[in-house]
Specification:
Largest sheet of chain A: 6 strands, mixed
Radius of gyration of chain A: 19 Å
Number of helices of chain A: 8
Strand content of chain A: 25-35%
Shape of chain B: globular
Number of strands of chain A: 10
CATH architecture of chain A: 3-Layer(aba) Sandwich
Distance between the termini of chain A: 42 Å
Number of helices of chain B: 12
Low-confidence stretches of chain B: 1-7
CATH class of chain A: Alpha Beta
Oligomer: heterodimer
Largest interface: A-B, 30 and 24 residues
CATH topology of chain A: Rossmann fold
Structural class of chain A: alpha/beta
Radius of gyration of chain B: 21 Å
Largest sheet of chain B: 12 strands, mixed
Mean pLDDT of chain A: 93
Order of helices and strands of chain A: EEEHEEHEHHHEHEEEHH
Chain lengths: ~260, ~475
């Protein structure tokens, strides 16, 4: 096993307010980790931070990717190292077509190697996998797309750009069961083709885990990992909810305060 | 040939002057008379010019637009008529060498071979090269420079000239009417479609030059034509003036599309009057791209006078730098029932540039079931830049449907983050967003022009980070 991503004692601030309080996480090549937690627990903050969102400041700690500390790298530099973030709320860019966008991204990541014809062929293949109509190639990115279409478009981008490490921020939210299967199958297919890829899957629900088998499950409460385990942890959360963990964290904090 | 390349503006070179005739500075009755005589014009045109000159002297400066900048124009310091060569070239080889070099550098002969049905190149006051494909000539399509048009088709010119834009319209229309030279005269016979574009290219070379071309396009019943114009000038330390008048007439069921890519250097006052009349079932479209100039004041207008006529004005403006002001817009008048119109205005301001939208939408009483959409979007790339909107609506009829939408935006960090997360650099991401913003205009252009325009935007945007 080789380490792909190592997060050490990571503290993150937004507008001088600390959101993440010393996160530790290690993900090896070929592993699928799932990050679960309530809304507002800091899951998306971690996702955006890993990709280098300018609003999230690392106040201490470090992110090491493939042996390199990436704390100060710009998003595009991280992408070049092989990181990818599938957005929870993908943005629309009017006037920029899906094909043009992906071609520019491909060019930026790998230089201009593929001919436009080969590129289009590849794009159509991947679109077929996700049952995305070819007409989407000439539509403007996410402009007027439904929620499900946007999510599939994120997975399409992953498949096209071939990252080494994939962060998927709630790829399952708002999807009906058919779309969920398509998305999950596509993730699995990508993993089969790239057995060394590391995946950090952020989700609320255990539902997607019926299709994607995680190696580890972590639970986020109030800006930190409070529990880690195998796939069974997700099932336990499904049954018991998050309350017991929240209560446990509250008790721990109380204990610390009492000792003082 | 001397060249003086300006770093930022790629057409900023100028040629050594070697002219057949160059008027003195300033505007006089004597000059106008002499000019008309040199052009061997009929009496009515000489009289028209002199009357217009009188109007010009009497008219006040416009009270709209950038009145401060307008004050800087020194009408006494301008060369009103410069004739670069004795004869107009029929083949490219006949064009004088210095001038030919200029247009070679601008890519005109190449463009002609590739994708134009006809091309006209105007250097200073006169059209120096002109051609039209043989097949179009046989169909009866007339595409001449305006001076030749007046000589060869005096009755058509007399019938329509200045009927759409009379000299009394505004001070600059009067000025053009007095000293006009060059421009295009186009007539398309009934039910004739000119499938590939006709183009004119305008180039100012002399410092303090005034270029006053005059264009008249008549599309007869059921015909269609697409006309494209491009403009460049050298970068001098003192200003030049470009003041054109363009009149379009689309008869019953005809279609005219008029595309402008204005890329004057940033010391040219670009004060242009453009107006079209659309008859029953006719379609007129102005595609107006303003990239250059110091001050542009231009509001292409369409009078929808026949039932079911449709008018469209799509304009983009890029105001870049604190000395640049693009005051552009549109004017549409619905004077008949069941007429429809669309105005789309996109402006970008950066580095202290100012972009204004000025528009008028008018519906006459009795023009029932009118539909119109007005959409103005402004993109500001930094805090020092400025964007204003001056929309006016005069609606005298109840049975109308009008949509109006205006947005002002900046490049959002979230969008940049999204694009950058895919490996695209910040500079490239900004450019993609800007190009995307302009796409509604660019996608309407023939491919070669779209590529050229994107390249221009790219040049303008270079070093915009920070």
């Amino acid at each position: 096993m080789t380490m792909l991503l190592k997060i050490e004692d990571l503290h993150i601030e937004i507008s001088e307010k600390e959101i993440l309080h010393g996160v530790n996480l290690e993900i090896n090549k070929g592993e699928v980790h799932v990050l679960m937690g309530r809304n507002g627990s800091g899951k998306s903050t971690l996702s955006n931070t890993l990709m280098g969102h300018p609003a999230y400041k690392v106040s201490s700690g470090s992110i090491t990717f493939d042996g390199q500390v990436i704390n100060n790298l710009k998003p595009n530099e991280r992408a070049k190292l092989g990181l990818f973030l599938g957005f929870q709320y993908p943005l629309s860019i009017p006037g920029v077509t899906v094909a043009n966008f992906l071609r520019q991204a491909n060019k930026a990541l790998r230089g201009d190697s593929t001919s436009p014809r080969d590129f289009r062929k590849l794009l159509y293949e991947k679109m077929d996998d996700l049952e995305i109509d070819h007409a989407f190639a000439t539509r403007y990115i996410n402009d007027g797309f439904s929620g499900g279409e946007k999510k599939r478009m994120e997975i399409l981008q992953m498949a096209m750009l071939e990252p080494k490490f994939v962060i998927l921020d709630e790829p399952d939210s708002g999807l009906d069961i058919d779309s969920l299967k398509l998305v999950a199958n596509s993730i699995n297919r990508y993993k089969e083709k790239n057995p060394h890829v590391g995946i950090l899957l952020v989700t609320h629900y255990q539902r997607i885990l019926d299709y994607i088998k995680p190696d580890k499950v972590h639970v986020f409460v109030e800006g930190n990992v409070v529990e880690s385990g195998g796939p069974e942890l997700a099932l336990e959360l499904e049954k018991k909810g998050y309350d017991w963990l929240t209560v446990r964290e509250e008790e721990k904090r109380q204990l610390v305060e009492d000792k003082r | 040939m001397s060249t003086e390349l300006n770093q930022e503006y790629q057409y900023g070179f100028h040629d050594v002057e070697n002219y057949t005739f160059k008027s003195g500075r300033g505007l006089t009755i004597d000059l106008v008379t002499k000019m008309s005589k040199m052009k061997k014009e009929p009496q009515w045109m000489t009289e028209f010019r002199l009357k217009a000159l009188d109007t010009f002297f009497k008219k006040p400066m416009p009270k709209w637009g950038n009145t401060e900048l307008l004050k800087e124009i020194d009408f006494e310091n301008i060369f009103y008529y410069v004739k670069p060569t004795e004869n107009q070239g029929k083949t490219w080889d006949e064009v004088p060498k210095e001038i030919k070099n200029t247009f070679d550098r601008l890519g005109i002969p190449e463009a002609e071979r590739k994708f134009l049905a006809g091309v006209s190149a105007q250097y200073e006051s006169e059209v120096i090269y002109h051609s039209l494909r043989e097949d179009l000539k046989k169909l009866g399509v007339i595409f001449l420079d305006m001076d030749s048009g007046l000589r060869e088709y005096p009755e058509i010119v007399k019938k329509y000239f200045a009927t759409i834009i009379p000299p009394e319209d505004n001070k600059f229309a009067a000025l053009n009417s007095a000293v006009w030279s060059g421009g295009s005269f186009i007539y398309v016979p009934p039910h004739t479609n000119v499938e590939i574009p006709l183009q004119a290219y305008f180039r100012i070379n002399t410092e303090n030059m005034g270029q006053f071309e005059r264009t008249l396009i008549i599309a007869d019943e059921g015909s269609s034509v697409h006309y494209i114009e491009g403009c460049t000038a050298p970068t001098y330390s003192s200003d030049s003036l470009h003041s054109a008048v363009v009149e379009l007439l689309a008869l019953k069921g005809a279609k005219i599309r008029y595309t402008t890519i204005q890329n004057w250097s940033k010391n040219v006052f670009n004060l242009v009057t453009k107006r079209a009349v659309a008859h029953e079932d006719a379609v007129v479209e102005w595609l107006d791209g303003n990239m250059g100039s110091k001050l542009t004041m231009k509001y292409p207008s369409i009078y929808l006078v026949g039932e079911r006529a449709h008018g469209e004005v799509v304009s983009v403006a890029l105001a870049s730098g604190k000395d640049q002001h693009q005051d552009a817009g549109a004017k549409i008048v619905h004077a008949a029932p069941n007429t429809t119109s669309v105005i789309i205005s996109k402006s970008i301001s950066r580095n202290g540039g100012r972009a204004s939208y000025r528009g008028l939408l008018k519906v006459h009483k009795g023009a029932t079931n009118v539909k119109s959409t007005v959409k103005c979007d402004a993109l500001m790339l930094d805090e020092h830049s400025r964007s204003d909107t001056y929309p006016t609506m005069e609606i005298a009829e109840k049975d109308v449907r009008i949509e109006h939408e205006a947005t002002v935006s900046k490049i959002e960090d979230e969008k940049l983050f999204y694009l950058m997360s895919r490996g695209i650099s910040e500079e490239q991401a900004k450019l993609m967003i800007v190009n995307g913003f302009m796409e509604v205009f660019v996608k309407e252009l023939p491919m070669e022009y779209a590529v050229e325009l994107n390249r221009l935007i790219e040049l303008e945007m270079e070093g915009s980070i920070g």
